[in-house]
Protein backbone atom coordinates (compact mmCIF):
# COMPACT_ATOMS: atom_id res chain seq x y z
CA UNK A 1 0.00 0.00 0.00
CA UNK A 2 1.02 3.63 -0.43
CA UNK A 3 0.37 5.15 3.00
CA UNK A 4 -2.41 7.43 1.81
CA UNK A 5 -3.65 7.81 5.40
CA UNK A 6 -0.30 7.74 7.18
CA UNK A 7 -0.45 9.65 10.46
CA UNK A 8 -4.26 9.92 10.43
CA UNK A 9 -6.85 8.54 12.82
CA UNK A 10 -10.16 7.05 11.73
CA UNK A 11 -13.38 6.14 13.49
CA UNK A 12 -15.40 3.57 11.54
CA UNK A 13 -18.91 3.20 12.94
CA UNK A 14 -20.36 -0.11 11.82
CA UNK A 15 -16.95 -1.76 11.53
CA UNK A 16 -18.27 -5.20 12.35
CA UNK A 17 -20.45 -7.07 9.92
CA UNK A 18 -23.34 -9.44 9.48
CA UNK A 19 -22.03 -13.03 9.38
CA UNK A 20 -21.69 -14.34 5.84
CA UNK A 21 -19.34 -15.67 3.19
CA UNK A 22 -18.35 -12.26 1.82
CA UNK A 23 -16.91 -9.08 3.32
CA UNK A 24 -19.05 -6.25 4.69
CA UNK A 25 -18.55 -2.58 3.81
CA UNK A 26 -17.55 -1.45 7.29
CA UNK A 27 -14.97 -4.16 7.80
CA UNK A 28 -13.47 -3.52 4.36
CA UNK A 29 -13.21 0.22 5.11
CA UNK A 30 -11.51 -0.42 8.45
CA UNK A 31 -9.06 -2.90 6.94
CA UNK A 32 -8.16 -0.64 4.02
CA UNK A 33 -7.78 2.46 6.19
CA UNK A 34 -5.39 0.54 8.45
CA UNK A 35 -3.43 -0.82 5.49
CA UNK A 36 -3.01 2.76 4.29
CA UNK A 37 -1.52 3.85 7.61
CA UNK A 38 -4.45 5.06 9.74
CA UNK A 39 -5.02 4.04 13.33
CA UNK A 40 -8.61 2.77 13.33
CA UNK A 41 -11.21 2.92 16.10
CA UNK A 42 -13.70 0.18 15.20
CA UNK A 43 -17.21 0.78 16.55
CA UNK A 44 -20.12 -1.62 16.41
CA UNK A 45 -23.21 -2.36 18.47
CA UNK A 46 -21.83 -5.92 18.75
CA UNK A 47 -18.41 -5.68 20.40
CA UNK A 48 -17.43 -9.19 19.27
CA UNK A 49 -17.92 -8.23 15.62
CA UNK A 50 -15.83 -5.09 16.04
CA UNK A 51 -13.18 -7.16 17.79
CA UNK A 52 -13.06 -9.56 14.83
CA UNK A 53 -12.26 -6.62 12.55
CA UNK A 54 -9.58 -5.42 14.95
CA UNK A 55 -8.05 -8.89 15.06
CA UNK A 56 -7.82 -8.91 11.25
CA UNK A 57 -6.11 -5.50 11.30
CA UNK A 58 -3.66 -6.46 14.03
CA UNK A 59 -2.81 -9.68 12.18
CA UNK A 60 -1.68 -7.51 9.25
CA UNK A 61 0.46 -5.32 11.49
CA UNK A 62 -1.99 -2.43 11.66
CA UNK A 63 -3.23 -0.41 14.61
CA UNK A 64 -6.81 -0.67 15.82
CA UNK A 65 -9.09 -0.95 18.81
CA UNK A 66 -12.72 -2.00 19.30
CA UNK A 67 -15.59 -0.21 21.01
CA UNK A 68 -19.26 -1.04 21.50
CA UNK A 69 -21.95 1.62 20.95
CA UNK A 70 -25.56 1.83 19.81
CA UNK A 71 -25.84 5.00 17.72
CA UNK A 72 -29.60 5.03 18.17
CA UNK A 73 -28.79 6.29 21.68
CA UNK A 74 -27.45 9.85 21.86
CA UNK A 75 -25.45 9.11 25.00
CA UNK A 76 -23.64 6.25 23.25
CA UNK A 77 -22.61 8.61 20.45
CA UNK A 78 -21.17 11.07 22.95
CA UNK A 79 -19.34 8.30 24.80
CA UNK A 80 -17.87 6.82 21.62
CA UNK A 81 -16.45 10.21 20.61
CA UNK A 82 -14.95 10.69 24.07
CA UNK A 83 -13.48 7.19 23.93
CA UNK A 84 -12.08 7.78 20.45
CA UNK A 85 -10.43 10.99 21.63
CA UNK A 86 -8.93 9.21 24.63
CA UNK A 87 -7.64 6.38 22.44
CA UNK A 88 -6.59 8.22 19.29
CA UNK A 89 -5.98 11.76 20.53
CA UNK A 90 -8.03 13.23 17.69
CA UNK A 91 -10.50 12.24 14.96
CA UNK A 92 -9.32 12.93 11.42
CA UNK A 93 -11.82 10.66 9.69
CA UNK A 94 -15.34 9.72 10.75
CA UNK A 95 -16.98 7.01 8.68
CA UNK A 96 -20.71 6.48 9.36
CA UNK A 97 -21.56 3.06 7.99
CA UNK A 98 -24.46 1.83 10.15
CA UNK A 99 -27.72 1.08 8.37
CA UNK A 100 -30.73 -1.21 8.68
CA UNK A 101 -33.81 -2.12 6.66
CA UNK A 102 -36.48 -4.80 6.34
CA UNK A 103 -38.85 -5.82 9.11
CA UNK A 104 -42.11 -4.08 8.17
CA UNK A 105 -40.71 -1.76 5.50
CA UNK A 106 -42.54 -1.59 2.18
CA UNK A 107 -44.47 0.77 -0.10
CA UNK A 108 -46.39 3.59 1.59
CA UNK A 109 -49.62 1.62 2.01
CA UNK A 110 -47.86 -1.35 3.65
CA UNK A 111 -45.06 0.26 5.65
CA UNK A 112 -45.68 -0.05 9.39
CA UNK A 113 -45.22 2.86 11.76
CA UNK A 114 -42.91 0.74 13.93
CA UNK A 115 -40.64 -0.02 10.98
CA UNK A 116 -40.60 3.61 9.85
CA UNK A 117 -39.59 4.82 13.31
CA UNK A 118 -37.00 2.05 13.81
CA UNK A 119 -35.29 2.50 10.45
CA UNK A 120 -35.21 6.31 10.62
CA UNK A 121 -33.93 6.14 14.23
CA UNK A 122 -30.83 4.27 13.08
CA UNK A 123 -30.19 5.32 9.49
CA UNK A 124 -30.85 9.05 9.92
CA UNK A 125 -31.10 10.02 13.57
CA UNK A 126 -28.24 7.75 14.62
CA UNK A 127 -25.96 9.18 11.94
CA UNK A 128 -26.90 12.73 12.88
CA UNK A 129 -26.26 12.01 16.56
CA UNK A 130 -22.80 10.65 15.76
CA UNK A 131 -21.94 13.64 13.58
CA UNK A 132 -23.31 16.00 16.23
CA UNK A 133 -21.08 14.44 18.88
CA UNK A 134 -17.95 14.45 16.69
CA UNK A 135 -18.06 17.90 15.09
CA UNK A 136 -17.16 19.94 18.21
CA UNK A 137 -14.00 17.87 18.67
CA UNK A 138 -13.13 18.01 14.97
CA UNK A 139 -13.52 21.80 14.99
CA UNK A 140 -11.61 22.25 18.24
CA UNK A 141 -8.64 20.12 17.25
CA UNK A 142 -8.03 22.08 14.03
CA UNK A 143 -6.52 20.72 10.86
CA UNK A 144 -9.84 19.88 9.23
CA UNK A 145 -11.16 16.37 8.80
CA UNK A 146 -13.32 14.11 6.67
CA UNK A 147 -16.80 12.75 7.42
CA UNK A 148 -17.98 9.95 5.16
CA UNK A 149 -21.61 8.83 5.23
CA UNK A 150 -23.04 5.65 3.77
CA UNK A 151 -26.06 6.35 1.56
CA UNK A 152 -27.70 4.19 -1.09
CA UNK A 153 -29.06 4.31 -4.62
CA UNK A 154 -32.40 3.74 -2.89
CA UNK A 155 -32.20 7.42 -1.93
CA UNK A 156 -33.11 8.36 -5.49
CA UNK A 157 -35.01 5.37 -6.87
CA UNK A 158 -37.25 2.48 -5.89
CA UNK A 159 -40.73 2.18 -4.48
CA UNK A 160 -40.87 -0.90 -2.30
CA UNK A 161 -39.04 0.10 0.89
CA UNK A 162 -40.20 3.60 1.71
CA UNK A 163 -38.62 3.94 5.16
CA UNK A 164 -35.19 2.88 3.90
CA UNK A 165 -35.49 5.08 0.80
CA UNK A 166 -36.52 8.13 2.81
CA UNK A 167 -33.79 7.53 5.39
CA UNK A 168 -31.09 7.43 2.72
CA UNK A 169 -32.49 10.45 0.87
CA UNK A 170 -32.25 12.28 4.19
CA UNK A 171 -28.66 11.08 4.61
CA UNK A 172 -27.82 12.81 1.33
CA UNK A 173 -29.23 16.10 2.59
CA UNK A 174 -27.59 15.62 5.99
CA UNK A 175 -24.32 15.23 4.12
CA UNK A 176 -24.66 18.43 2.09
CA UNK A 177 -25.87 20.41 5.10
CA UNK A 178 -22.93 19.28 7.24
CA UNK A 179 -20.59 20.03 4.35
CA UNK A 180 -21.92 23.58 4.03
CA UNK A 181 -21.88 24.36 7.74
CA UNK A 182 -18.37 23.03 8.34
CA UNK A 183 -16.48 24.05 5.22
CA UNK A 184 -15.01 27.13 6.91
CA UNK A 185 -13.56 24.83 9.56
CA UNK A 186 -11.86 22.66 6.95
CA UNK A 187 -14.14 19.71 7.69
CA UNK A 188 -15.39 17.92 4.60
CA UNK A 189 -18.49 15.73 4.43
CA UNK A 190 -19.28 13.39 1.54
CA UNK A 191 -21.49 10.36 0.98
CA UNK A 192 -21.16 7.00 -0.75
CA UNK A 193 -24.31 6.11 -2.70
CA UNK A 194 -24.11 2.38 -3.25
CA UNK A 195 -26.09 0.27 -5.67
CA UNK A 196 -26.18 -3.53 -5.49
CA UNK A 197 -23.25 -4.80 -3.41
CA UNK A 198 -22.36 -8.42 -2.71
CA UNK A 199 -22.19 -8.11 1.07
CA UNK A 200 -23.55 -10.35 3.84
CA UNK A 201 -26.14 -7.80 4.97
CA UNK A 202 -27.56 -7.61 1.45
CA UNK A 203 -27.33 -11.17 0.15
CA UNK A 204 -27.79 -13.19 3.33
CA UNK A 205 -30.43 -10.72 4.51
CA UNK A 206 -32.54 -11.01 1.33
CA UNK A 207 -32.12 -14.79 1.17
CA UNK A 208 -33.22 -15.13 4.78
CA UNK A 209 -36.20 -12.80 4.35
CA UNK A 210 -37.44 -14.46 1.16
CA UNK A 211 -36.48 -18.06 1.82
CA UNK A 212 -34.48 -18.24 -1.41
CA UNK A 213 -31.02 -19.79 -1.94
CA UNK A 214 -28.06 -17.43 -1.71
CA UNK A 215 -26.91 -18.11 -5.27
CA UNK A 216 -30.38 -17.43 -6.67
CA UNK A 217 -30.44 -14.03 -4.94
CA UNK A 218 -26.90 -13.30 -6.08
CA UNK A 219 -27.63 -14.22 -9.70
CA UNK A 220 -30.80 -12.12 -9.84
CA UNK A 221 -29.03 -9.05 -8.48
CA UNK A 222 -25.99 -9.54 -10.73
CA UNK A 223 -28.24 -9.58 -13.79
CA UNK A 224 -29.57 -6.10 -12.96
CA UNK A 225 -26.15 -4.41 -12.94
CA UNK A 226 -25.24 -2.74 -16.29
CA UNK A 227 -21.47 -2.68 -15.71
CA UNK A 228 -20.21 -6.20 -16.29
CA UNK A 229 -23.41 -7.86 -15.10
CA UNK A 230 -22.05 -8.21 -11.59
CA UNK A 231 -22.58 -6.52 -8.25
CA UNK A 232 -19.89 -4.51 -6.57
CA UNK A 233 -18.02 -5.73 -3.51
CA UNK A 234 -17.16 -4.18 -0.17
CA UNK A 235 -13.76 -3.29 -1.60
CA UNK A 236 -15.41 -1.03 -4.17
CA UNK A 237 -17.04 0.81 -1.30
CA UNK A 238 -13.83 0.87 0.73
CA UNK A 239 -11.69 2.35 -2.04
CA UNK A 240 -14.23 5.11 -2.64
CA UNK A 241 -14.21 5.81 1.11
CA UNK A 242 -10.42 5.84 1.05
CA UNK A 243 -10.46 8.59 -1.58
CA UNK A 244 -12.76 10.73 0.57
CA UNK A 245 -10.68 9.98 3.67
CA UNK A 246 -7.40 10.95 2.01
CA UNK A 247 -5.97 14.34 1.15
CA UNK A 248 -6.53 13.51 -2.52
CA UNK A 249 -10.11 14.75 -2.05
CA UNK A 250 -9.09 17.85 -0.11
CA UNK A 251 -11.15 20.16 -2.35
CA UNK A 252 -14.26 17.97 -2.46
CA UNK A 253 -17.14 18.35 -0.03
CA UNK A 254 -20.87 17.77 -0.25
CA UNK A 255 -20.45 15.12 -2.95
CA UNK A 256 -22.83 12.17 -3.23
CA UNK A 257 -20.75 9.60 -5.11
CA UNK A 258 -22.60 6.80 -6.96
CA UNK A 259 -20.93 3.40 -6.58
CA UNK A 260 -23.49 1.45 -8.54
CA UNK A 261 -22.11 -0.07 -11.74
CA UNK A 262 -24.30 2.26 -13.78
CA UNK A 263 -27.59 1.27 -12.15
CA UNK A 264 -28.53 4.88 -11.47
CA UNK A 265 -28.04 6.10 -15.05
Please characterize this protein's 3D structure.
The structure is a single chain. This protein is of the alpha/beta class. A seven-stranded parallel sheet has the order 3-2-1-4-5-6-7, with helices on both faces. Helix 1 packs parallel to helix 2 and helix 1 packs across helix 8. It is globular. The two termini are 32 Å apart. The model has no long low-confidence stretch (mean pLDDT 97).
Which residues form runs of ≥5 with pLDDT under 50? none
Mean of pLDDT = 97
Radius of gyration, taken over Cα atoms and rounded to an integer in Å: 17 Å
Q: Given the structure, what is the number of helices?
A: 8
Strand content: 15-25%
- Could you give a short account of the major beta sheet? 7 strands, parallel
CA-based shape: globular
Strand order of the largest sheet: 3-2-1-4-5-6-7
Based on secondary structure, the structural category is alpha/beta
Tell me the helix content: 40-55%
Order of helices and strands: EHEHEHEHEHEHHHE
Ends apart, CA distance between termini: 32 Å
Multimeric organization: single chain
Structure summary, number of beta strands: 7
